[in-house]
Amino acid sequence: MRANGGQIRTCRAVRGARAATLAAADSPGIDSAPMTTPPAVDLRSDTITRPTPAMRRAIAGAAVGDDVFGDDPTVLALEQRCAQLTGKEAALFVTSGTMGNQLAVNALTTPGDEVLLEAESHIFLYEQGGIAANSGCLAHIVRGARGVLAPEALAGALRAEDDHAARLTLVCAENTHNRAGGAIVPLERLRALHELARSRGVRMHLDGARLWNASVASGVPVPAWSACADTVMLSFSKGLGAPVGSILAGPADVVRRARRVRKRWGGGMRQAGILAAACLHALDHHVERLADDHARARTLADGLRECPGVTVAAPETNIVIAELAPPLEVEAVLESLQARGVRMVAFGPRRIRAIAHLDVDDDGIARAIEAFRGAVEALAEGPGR
Q1: Which of 30, 86, 153, 165 could form a disulfide linkage to 226, CB 3.0–4.6 angstroms apart?
Q2: How many beta carbons lie within 10 A of that of residue 244, not counting itself?
Q3: pLDDT value of residue 78
Q4: CB under 8 Å, gap of 24 or more: what pairs does 153-161 form?
Q5: Is 176 helix (H, G, I), strand (E, B) or coil?
Q6: What pLDDT is attached to residue 30?
């Protein structure tokens, strides 16, 4: 049967789109097009990073298969590499850090179990109550010091076997800790928590979305951190600059269960090698450079600290938290910053967060400091003065 005119036009359009995509991968691309005004300095998160031209070429040239059938060679290469990197038996490529965390909870618990979480952890605050909605688990919340869950907190949360009470079967830690300003949870504290958990028959998951940052800043290799937990999740779409993706690593049977649940939750991907290729490129080229982000975060913190009414703790990695004293107001400062071409985010009633990342260079940090100083000075003067 001959194709009609509409089908012919559609085929031509598809061929044209493919040609344009391949051409774009070999060209500087829209991100490097000349601009008449400086681009915004966007410090809202390290998730806003855009793929570099080299990463785009890796994406375009990726060998692909069907990951649901288990035969995408690039996804398989990424999973095998990450299993080795973390010292675990197996690994699973997932769309996001949230999915990785939620799959770990689901694979390590049964409905009705209790999960010990730090009060300001990502799993508790920013995943929509997923441990209850997805896995039927109860959150047991304790407050840590700068994100650190002490072994004593776990010991205090454990109860004797009682048919009336939920069983605490899982503890989750986070490193680096977002709400604590990118703080690194010390290795010895994680080890102590894991040793107690294991001795009491409790599993442990590590939310390591920014574990790459902890490793580069501390000099402690990733396997040493991941040895402190049964499962570990690491993200590629933050400081490493990939557009999509995280990895969940752990025992082979746990990862197999997580793979099955991923499909149930709609997370099975087909030609996912185009995404995995970006992650592999990031592992090869964007890990050690995280030290540059950490240095820029320190420079930013030093600059903001000079502003009157602003308190900034020294950052350990790439996250800077500015505390505002009255009469400075968070929303007013953010609006003034945006008018000056700089973007940050509210992080509490009196806190502003900024994150250094791949897309912001030294000049961008200098612009951010100048804009923040200008915003604070203008607001301190008040209207009509």
Answers
A1: 86
A2: 18
A3: 98
A4: 153/116, 154/116, 154/193, 154/196, 154/197, 154/200, 154/202, 155/196, 157/114, 157/116, 158/200, 158/202
A5: coil
A6: 43
Among 49, 31, 40, residue whose Cα is nearest residue 239: 49
How many Å apart are CA 159 and CA 168, to the nearest integer?
Answer: 8
Cα–Cα distance between 257 and 110 in angstroms, integer? 12
> How many residues are there in the chain?
385
Phi, psi of 234 (to 5 degrees): -130, 145
**Cis check: omega of the bond before 327, within 30 degrees of 0:** yes
Q: What is the DSSP letter of 305?
A: H
Residue 383: the pLDDT is 56
Token pair belonging to 257: 């269960």
Domains, the chain, with CATH or none:
54-285 (3.40.640.10), 290-381 (3.90.1150.10)
Pick from 156, 153, 97: nearest CA to 130: 97
Report how far residue 258's alpha carbon sits from residue 246's, in angstroms, rounded to the nearest whole number.
Answer: 13
pLDDT under 50: residue ranges of the chain: 1-3, 5-25, 27-36, 384-385
Torsion angle, alpha carbons of 352, 357, 359, 361, to 10? 90
Per-residue model confidence (pLDDT) at position 33? 43
Residues 178 and 122: beta-carbon distance below 8 Å: yes
The CA distance from 297 to 303, in Å, is 10
**pLDDT at res. 19:** 44
Can you count the helices (H) and strands (E) in the chain?
15, 13
Bridge partner list, 170: 115, 203
pTM of the predicted model, to two decimals?
0.89
Residues contacting residue 7 through CB under 8 Å, at least 6 positions apart: none
Residues with Cβ within 8 Å of residue 51, at least 6 apart in sequence: 59, 241, 242, 243, 278
Residue 208 to residue 86: CA distance in whole angstroms: 11
State how far the Cα of 259 lies from the Cα of 257, in Å rounded to an integer. Answer: 5
pLDDT value, residue 38: 63
The whole-angstrom separation of Cα 269 and Cα 92 is 12
Contacts of range 302-310, beta carbons closer than 8 Å, 24 or more positions apart: 303/365, 303/366, 303/368, 303/369, 303/372, 303/373, 304/354, 304/369, 304/372, 306/373, 307/372, 307/373, 307/376, 307/377, 308/376, 308/380, 309/376, 309/380, 310/372, 310/376
Burial of 87 (0-12, 13-18, 19+ CB in 10 A): middle
